[in-house]
Design brief:
Helices cover about 30% and strands about 30% of the residues. It is an alpha+beta fold. The structure holds zinc ion.
């Protein structure tokens, strides 16, 4: 038996038996170190939402924070619909129905049932032959339901896909103050510690973005403690970040080096990360690369989908980087006139546009002094915040308030 294959979804008259996860599969998930916490099963899982995705086939991605131990799926006829019951699950926020203009899915709606069951109902335009599987994603899971009908590439582009039916969400910006705790980062000639300066700037950036309509910032750390680089990526993913900004201060042995820099991930960094993911995706636990479902695909197709996903993210990272750099140029000197690319681990999210900002050189005596100046910290935070906001105004994803406003503005012509 191929443990990775999709399991078919029964008709409503053949519910019992095939709907529970097999013990073997459950053990596989346990064995892969998937349980977010020892209490993972006892705590209610939270449904974050569902999306319709067009790849070679049409699928529904349902994101859950926590563990779904026993999802029940069944199909109904006249009118055709698919029902998904998630046991021990609540909605993480009020979820309103989302309608789709075209494609096999007409609408997705949600209802909390008695006994802690979250019900997701998918209203269909045609009958489908669904199957499903569960893949791990951060500290939660994604239920991937393949509807078994061909995807339409024309419907794959996000901008045409969703007619907003529910409340619009804010775009999420993950702010990552570099270093912390046992890792002080670079240290200036006057003993200024990078970890303190970048936290001060990050807090100001948080304040700046909190005051921005349609944007909710989150911080990877808001105190002086150590976080591993991979953990920072996972935190951003768990918060469903749309943009990731890591804040640092530079240091160089040539003490006159000065100015701000903005980095995005290098091609080398991206391809080595893709190779690692491809290797890991041999295990069920790493079957998702960003939003791309990898398992069950041919190796060449996997590679192609990975390249596509990475190119899109890299291009967006360069875009937000350019916006931020343009604003930083108005604040003071920049070290390099364009966005640089480097193999920084913290920039390796496959699906979140990510930049690293070196605010100034802490190793330069003058800039060390400026970095300690609340006015300069404020200017840096404003510049980064302005740049990110400009990017989001153009490119915040569907389902956000900013995307809806952009579409309305475009409709007005
Ligand atoms: Zn640093």
């Amino acid at each position: 038996m191929n443990d990775r294959s999709n399991r078919p979804v029964p008709r409503s008259d053949s519910l019992p038996g095939s709907r529970t996860l097999s013990r073997r599969r459950f053990m596989t998930l346990m064995g892969a170190g998937i349980m977010a916490s020892p209490m993972g099963i006892a705590q209610a899982a939270a449904l974050a939402g569902a999306r319709v995705v067009h790849q070679e086939t049409v699928s529904l991605h349902i994101d859950i924070d926590g563990q779904v131990t026993d999802p029940s799926l069944f199909s109904l006829d006249s009118p055709p619909r698919l029902v998904i019951d998630l046991h021990g699950t609540v909605a993480s926020a009020a979820l309103s129905p989302v309608e789709y203009e075209s494609g096999p899915v007409a609408r997705v709606r949600y209802g909390q049932q008695a006994g802690g069951v979250m019900r997701v109902v998918v209203d269909l335009r045609r009958s489908v032959s669904p199957s499903y599987r569960i893949v791990e994603r951060g500290s939660g899971q994604r239920l991937l339901i393949d509807l078994g009908v061909r995807g339409d590439p024309a419907l794959a582009s996000a901008s045409h896909r969703i007619v907003e039916g529910g409340p619009l969400r804010d775009a999420i910006v993950a702010i990552d103050a570099g270093h912390g705790g046992k890792d002080p980062g670079a240290i200036g000639q006057r003993q200024t510690r990078e970890k303190d300066i970048v936290l001060a700037v990050a807090r100001r950036l948080y304040k700046r973005l909190s005051a921005t309509r349609g944007v909710t910032p989150v911080m990877t750390r808001d105190s002086d403690h150590y976080i591993a680089l991979r953990e920072r990526i996972e935190m951003a993913r768990d918060k469903h970040a749309d943009v990731f900004v890591s804040v640092h201060a530079d240091a160089f042995k040539r003490l006159t080096a000065h100015g701000s820099s903005v980095y995005a991930l290098s091609r080398d960094g991206a391809s080595s990360e893709a190779a690692a993911w491809l290797a890991k995706s041999e295990n069920e636990s790493a079957a998702l690369f960003g939003d791309v479902a990898l398992d069950g695909l041919e190796p060449t197709l996997r590679q192609t989908l990975l390249d596509l996903a990475q190119n899109t993210t890299l291009e967006a990272s360069m875009d937000v980087g350019n916006e931020v750099l343009a604003k930083l140029k108005q604040v003071g000197a920049v070290h390099k006139p364009q966005v640089e690319q480097a193999n920084f681990a913290v920039l390796k999210s496959p699906d979140i546009p990510s930049i690293l900002v070196e605010t100034a050189f802490i190793s330069n005596l003058q800039e060390e002094k400026k970095l300690n100046d609340p006015r300069f910290q404020h200017q840096l935070a404003e510049a980064i915040g302005d740049g990110v906001s400009r990017f989001l105004a153009r490119r915040a994803p569907d389902g956000t308030l900013l995307a809806a406003e952009r579409r309305r503005a475009a409709d007005r012509g």
